[in-house]
Each structure stands twice: as C-alpha cells, then as structure tokens.
Design brief:
Elements (H helix, E strand, L loop, with lengths): L1 H19 L5 H9 L3 H6 L6 E5 L4 H14 L4 E3 L7 H11 L10 E5 L5 H8 L3 E4 L13 H12 L5 E5 L3 H8 L5 E7 L1 H4 L23 E9 L2 E6 L2 E6 L5 H18 L5 H9 L7 E7 L2 E7 L3 H11 L6 E4 L21 E5 L3 H10 L4 E5 L2 H15 L3 E5 L1 H10 L11
Parallel strand pairs: 1-3, 1-4, 2-3, 4-5, 5-6, 6-7, 11-15, 12-13, 12-15, 13-14
Antiparallel strand pairs: 7-8, 8-9, 10-11
Helix pairs in contact: 1-2, 1-5, 2-5, 4-10, 4-11, 6-7
Amino acid sequence: MRLFLAVLVGKLVRQVVKLRGGGSAYPGRFALLVYPKLLKRTLSNFRLGVVLVSGSNGKSTTTSLAVATLESQGLRVFTNSSGSNMPRGIASAIVHSAKLSGAIDADIAVIEVDEGYAEQIAKELVPNWFVLTNVQIDQLNRFYEPDRVFEMLLEASSFASDGVIVNGSDANLIELISRLDANEVFQVGASPDALKAWPKGALAAPVFGLSNRKVDSPVLVRIISEKDGSTNLEVAGIDVNVSMPGKGLHFAIATALSVALGIKIAGKDFDLDKAVSRISSLPTVYGRGEQTSYNGASFQIMMMKNPPSMQANLVAMGKTRNNIWIAVDEGTPDTSWIYDIDFSGVSGVEVISGSMAWHLALRLRYAGIPVHSVIPDTKDALQRYVDYLSGIGEPGILLSNYEQMMVVRKLVGLHDLEGGRS
C-alpha cells in the first residue's frame, strides 16, 4: 500500500512540477518521504539485475551510451536519464517509469550514481555490475580530495555481485580493482597515441597510494585513436570505427566502457555492429555537447563542474575564436580552481554571465584573454549572445556549470529531463 501511495504521490507532484517548470528531483523526494524503501522495492527484480555507473566525471554520458548499447541488443533498460543521480533523482525516474503498482517494464537497470551516495545506493540495491569512469580532482567545497573519492568508490564497488569494469587509463582505478577480492574485474584501455594529446589533469587525478600490486584484468575494449567526434576501437581483435555524440577522449572512454558492459551483459550473443550503429545515431546527453538553437542562432552547450571537466572541454573544443559564452553562478561557490586551467586555446570570450561572472572575467584578464561583455543576468546574456551569433552568422559554444546549464536550457525551451533522453 505504501509503495502504491509513494508512486501515486510522486506522479501527482511530477505533474505539478512540469506545469511550474521545476526541478526533476521533487517527485522522488516526496515519493521517498512516503516510502523510504522505494529504490530497493522497485529495482531489485529485474531479470538481468542492476548496473551502477559512478566516478568523478563522465557518468551521464557513460550511462546514456551504456543504455543505448544494451537497447541495441534488444534489452529493455530502465535508467535515470536526467542525470539526477542522488536517491531522490533516481526515485523521480522510478516515479516516471513505474506503474502505480511499482512495476517497471524492463530487463535491466543502468543507473548513474553520485560518488558521494554510491556506497549507500550500492548497499541497498546490491548491483550486479559497477562501471567506474575515473577519479579526478573536484571542487574544493565538494570532493576535492581524490583519495576520499577513491575510498568511496572502492567501498561501493565491493558490493557488485558479478563484477566491475573500469577506465584503465586511470591508474587510480587500476589500483582500486587490485584491492577488490571477490569481484571479477575488467578494464578498457587507450593506446599511447590516443592519450598523447591529452593533459593528465583532464583524465585523472594524480596517482596516489599505489601498492604496485599487479592486476590480471582483461582489457575488453581498447581505444586506438580519437579525433573529431569519432573513435577507433579494438574489440576482440576487431577494429571498428564509432561516431560518438561528442568530441574528446573522454567520450571515447565512455563509449569503450559502454561496449565493454554490453559484452559482459549480452555474452556470446553480443552484436558489435548493432551496438556501433546505435551509438553512432545517439544524440548527445543534455548539456554535454548538446546542440541547441534560439531565435535563429545555434550554439553548443558544454557543461563543466570542476577542473578536469573544464580542461577536457577546452581541449575538445580546440583552437577557438571570439564566439564563446561562459556562464557560472553560485552553484560553483569556490572558483579559485579556474586559476589552474590552461586557457591557451581561447583567443577571446564574447560574454560571461552568472553570479560568478566577474570572478571569471578577472581570471581571463590575468590570462590576457579579451572579454567583450560581462552580463550577470543569464536571460540578458542569452539575448546578447544570440544577437552576436546572428550578426556573425556562425554557431557558438556555451561553457557553463550545471546550474547555469539548467537555466539556459529552460530559457531556450528545453524543459523535460526525467522522461526519456534529452
């Protein structure tokens, strides 16, 4: 009865939230108040179990690609596609997909989880598989200490009943799987050629606490190269080219992890061609290289939340002109880390917005990069930027933190997140 009431209340709240244009986590928050065991009760009965995806960065992209890969194999997949990865966000996804009885029509769940909640969720759900993207330096106000994130992910992944798949180009994750006793462990790798163009800070935190234990971990997928939104992968001795939903080695790693998961879930029936075809047609996860348009102008939304994600986006962007918009607000309360970012590929910024706009403008001034407009109000900045893009007749790039990304998406008419992929 409480399960029924929780789902019903969540669905009612969802309708109210959609009318008011509110956040995607509210339905789950109310549903969990009615029935705190909602996650365990609804997600523990899938035929092929539960997969959790976590790490410092790249969780949403990896989850989206993993879902697409498994769906290409004919599986029905439940996921939290909005990227709201704490318990209330996962509960909101349940509210959206479940019948009033709590039943969800799926064979398997692939769920993105915040690293801070990973152990709690893993303990509750006991996942079959755990997929780990990286261990990176975060913002000072959150999980700045990578060794703390390492311990969180180590504890969480130890609950995986079938195995763990990691990004093997992150030495910290290789160390992590060396400490797992009961689990099968697998990795995806990257060739030296694929790695050479990428600064270490954009891929992983500095290596720490290595035990030098050897890890006999099979490499399921190897990244041979990555360029301009496509990657060449080696899978079981077969070379295959995959068009990705975004540019950069971080997208290639997410692609490789998704294919590796597909191999382990589908087993001998895994169809690589179907997986490649589906991934190649997949739209970008919202805010992660998402292309949008407004009043006749188009621009790409690239979200950054910490030093590695911002540096990775800058590297992926390549040499740029003066058509960038940067938006950062108090969702990034400590912006001191921007002084560690290499802006050498940026020749100019057209607009900076958000409550932290002047902090960014000062940093760029120190770097000698011209900033044409500082407009703290996001709505005014959007109009200014669109006018600029219309004038030059070229597309632009918005580099923003999560909170500003959500504001801009709403302003340009992109609202729904929890129902289906955006």
